Amino acid sequence: MRLCDQVLDLARWAPSGDNSQPWRFEIRSNFEIFIHGYDTRDHCVYDLDGWASQLAHGALLETLTLAATRFGHRARSSIASEDPRGHIVYKVVLETDPTVVEDPLVSVIPERVVQRRPMGSKRMLAEHRLALEHAVQPYSVIWLDSWSARAAMASLNARNAHIRLTIPEAFAVHKAVIAWNCETSEDRLPAASLGADPILLGIMQWVMASWERQSFFNHYLGGTVMPRLLLDFLPGILCSAHFAILGPSEPRSTVDRIAAGRAVQRFWLTATRLKLQVQPSYTPLVFARYAREHRHFTRVEQAHGTAREIARRLDEMLGSGEAIRTVFLGRIGPARAVKGRSLRLPLDRLMVTTTRESPTAS
């Protein structure tokens, strides 16, 4: 296997929203790779201006940089081009360096998972916090670990889930990304990974057959109560802490968001190495930004009011200056078995030979 293939075979395990893998690889030589980064803003309400995808691009570039150390190389990356439609081309050059040693995070790249079930509320060790804070520098971490703070974040996430479960724009996303009746998926979220028991999964699958059915269920049968309780509120309390990763300033450019994605991946891999697991809670940041910028995202007017409430509550919990600098939210706790996980597309299906090929190329 070529050097570039070996590096990319590890790098492809980088996280992305809903396992979208918004990138394709173009091999220019054994030491030069073009990464075609895309976003899902045209069909995903959570990918506002492509920011979530750019965060994933940063995580990919960081994973590639780490992976290169296994093979005695440094990876130098830069933005070669960017167009308004969200297509970003990253140029990566692999440089031989006999002084390079394998980064300790490389071994856990394929092990990193999302834990959507309760983790237990064992308090984090001080040295673990310090290691995670060091991993994201020059970014910083706010910890929300008291019972009241965890309850407040759990309540916010449950409130945020009310938007996700009651707007048709989010329904379309969920319907497309969930792979029912399976424990793994190469390009979607397997139902077994969602954190629900078999009974709730069966109800969810039946309800999500159509937007009309879900809307009726929500309106007349209290359809959001159980999933928000079991998938958002209880797991939000049963964890060691919630955390916010903050940038030095508000992320305004593509470069800022790429750097943020790199920091998030270092945090996540460091947590994995410490036998801790993470669940992202990214969408409150998205809806808070919709509210702050007075941007329309759904025909359900009540959801806009809920988004304003989420923005206000984030300002109260983090501080208004800190909330706008926050690039990632999540919860963390002791590792436990994960039932179901997202895999990745094989490397050959992530390859393209021309810059015109789209993310759906295989």
What key phrases describe this protein's structure?
362 residues, 18% strand, 43% helix, NADH Oxidase, 2 domains, four-stranded antiparallel β-sheet, 12 helices
The appropriate CATH architecture of the largest domain is 3-Layer(aba) Sandwich
Kindly state the number of beta strands. Answer: 12
Structural class comes to: alpha+beta
Mean pLDDT: 95
Q: State the share of residues found in helices, binned by percent.
A: 40-55%
CA distance, first residue to last residue: 19 Å
Rg from alpha-carbon coordinates: 20 Å
Low-confidence stretches: none
CATH class of the largest domain: Alpha Beta
Report a brief summary of the structure.
By secondary structure, this protein is α+β, with helices and mostly antiparallel strands. The chain is 43% helix and 18% strand. The strands form four sheets. It has a four-stranded antiparallel sheet with strand order 1-2-4-3, covered by helices on one side. Strands 5-9-11-10 form a four-stranded antiparallel sheet.
